[in-house]
Amino acid sequence: MKKIFAILLTLALLVGSAAFAEGTIKIAVAAPMTGDNAEYGIGFANAAKLMASEWNAKGGVTVDGQSYTVEIVEFDDKSDSDEAAIIAEKIVSDENIWGVIGHFASGICMVAAPTYQDAQYVDISPTASHADFSKIGDYIFRNNTVIVVETKTGAEMAVTDLGGQAIGVLSIDTEWGQSAGNAMEENIKALGGNFALRQEVSTDAVDFATEVANFKAAGCDVVMVAGMYGTLAPFAVACKNSGYDVKLVGCSNAYTANLINIAGEAAEGIYAPVSFFAGNTDERVQAYVKAYTEAYGAAPSALTTQAYDSVGILLGAIERAGFDREAIKNEMYKTEYEGMSGYTTFDENGDAQKIFTKIMVKDGAFQLAEF
Amino acid sequence: MQTLIGTLINGLALGMAYALIAVGYSMVFGVLRLINFSHGAVYAFGAYMVYFFVSLKFGLLPAILLSVVASGILALLIDKAALEPLRKKKSMPIATLITTIGMSFIIQNFLSIEYIFSSEKKPFPSLNLFESITIGNITIQSSQLIMLVVAILLLAVLTFIVNYTKIGLAMRATEQNSKAANLMGINVNFVISFTFFIGGASAAIAGSLIGGYYQVISPTMGSLIGLKAFSAAVVGGIGILYGSVIGGLIVGVAEVLAAQYLGSNVRDPMAFVILILILILKPTGLFGKKGISKV
Asked: Is the pLDDT assigned to residue B155 strictly greater than 90?
């Protein structure tokens, strides 16, 4: 009995998968699913599956009048370059994969990207921010902006919206921190603001007494912070404790629950530019946040949302182009996508252009900025 | 001028933080002639214990007291599990030293485990219990004052224990000659355990106060500050309790002055520059006694 059942089951599977294979489009999600950055990779996969299920519910991707089911295939690069290189080879050896979403960190992305480029597989990284990443080739895209664009919105808040008379910049001493800090300085000056003082701290600094005193002495009424929440939060606490009344403007990475957890009351009035805001009252965004929260138990972050949109952009390009890798690539450049992380187009490098939303912390929660 | 005064006050506050940790280093060294590098990790553990008990809805003060006991016990366990077997085997002092470094990594990584506290930074309740004092441009926070008072109290209590109590007498006897002390009826093992317990407890006090001053804690919070506090202890003369407080203040003020006038890049190396200078000019430290041979 058992044997017959097993045989039947196998047959059913075979028939089933054979029927499926004809009408399936595979999309690879390559990101760290275990290890250090697992949180982000799992977010990518979750977002991709959600987007795929939405397409499938509407009948899948239509090419030449025939509809295909979208299937997401996960690959775990463990945040490791060697692993990423192997995965990239694996992906390009599968003819049924029509595009890649990944990887997470710029360094890893840049290891895998040449393989995708050579095999003419479109690769969209939802997160890579290194300036050279998209220059690897014309099949390489990022659904993320380079730091200069992001800090421009930040500087706009500091100079125009908050009307800062003297604006300071605090940056962490990493490569990213320095370039973000420089971008902030340039943007402040470009907008005609009065850039007053730059201070640099180490990544895990918690003692900001000196920096606070210096900003105070320079008369800064707005300080832009090029650091993660781990720097911004204790800095906000230090400002508050030393009675320094200053407005803080962070980067999009400030948009985390941890910022409010750590800084508590001191987080009140921190401003940040973000590509996606879960509290956006737009109906489509609310529907997305609701669907994501129901499926995975927590609201999506900005980076997860960029992965979600990346899948939508890719499927759109495939639907328009059909099963021709070069045509898919050409369609990518014509993208005009009204996504959850804003209206997205790609420039000739394959870098996304995004419009940033201004948000702030008020009453212990993020909300749209009020000035 | 006001900037300079403000800078000095910031430096003294930071120095007090170093002093709080340095006292623990100094105390264990004074009795056991052992540099206990796990002290910085126990300090982080102490801060996390406060965080843990506060999240269980204990008040801040009971949480600190519980953390002091828990950290004392942890330090004691470190000694029992790793150092006592080495002492029994009469292994070289360097083996014990390296073991304490190893223990510090074990504790740090334990705290970083995802399901324990995770490696992310955590908020810590503020110790600004009363209004800060503002004179002109200069603000002195209540948490800074509390650190100052507690550091002096801790120094006084430890000095009292070592110099004026029976157990202190036993500690000093153990330091001078543990075999002879044993023959005189002193329970040397108990004395050593007690010393470790007090060392761990003082680390937890430091962790609570410094955590409350910065209001943020992380599993690695003890590593750099621990090394700087160790330098402070050496600068003041390791083994001399009041020396470590003064050493802490010197390192703290020098660091803040360096950050202010030479740029933030020279900030972190400052403690070690002073350490090297002192070791060249006065190897026993500012207040150190001559004749310290084992390190």
From this structure: no
